[in-house]
Amino acid sequence: MNEFRFLHLERRRIDQALPDILEEALAAGKRVVVQAGSEERVEALNERLWTYADESFLPHGAARDGEPQAQPVYLTAGDDNPNGAALRVLLSGVPAAAFVKAGYERVALLFDGRDEEAVAEARREWIAVKAAGAAPSYWREGEDGGWARVR
Fold this sequence. Notes:
Structural class: alpha/beta
CATH class: Alpha Beta
Largest sheet: 8 strands, mixed
Number of helices: 3
Number of domains: 1
CATH topology: Rossmann fold
Oligomer: single chain
Strand order of the largest sheet: 3-4-2-5-6-1-7-8
Helix content: 25-40%
Strand content: 15-25%
Distance between the termini: 18 Å
């Protein structure tokens, strides 16, 4: 069974926090699939990851870039895993329970705690993930941008 984390953002937006999560995973030698709720969101993230910091670069791509198996970070709106990722990051609004037994080392659902709809959706997903047999953990964004496990 994989590790399932719910990551509650309180200070940064998803597109601001995601690069740190991806950099940490890549530094640990992990490949990542990031699933957004729409192709438009995938395109916005694709652009954001090229420009989020002048001094940093995150190797990534999406379906339109071709060769998905060669991408360390693959962005998608579907449930595919063409790069053999060990970590799957689900963005707010993506159903999570289907990934409980999908073979990932870790699945993380990232949501904005300042968005009431996103919080309500995360609560529904928490219930669905538990019903699917996982024991999810809940993490809050700290003042320094790191994560603290709450439960």
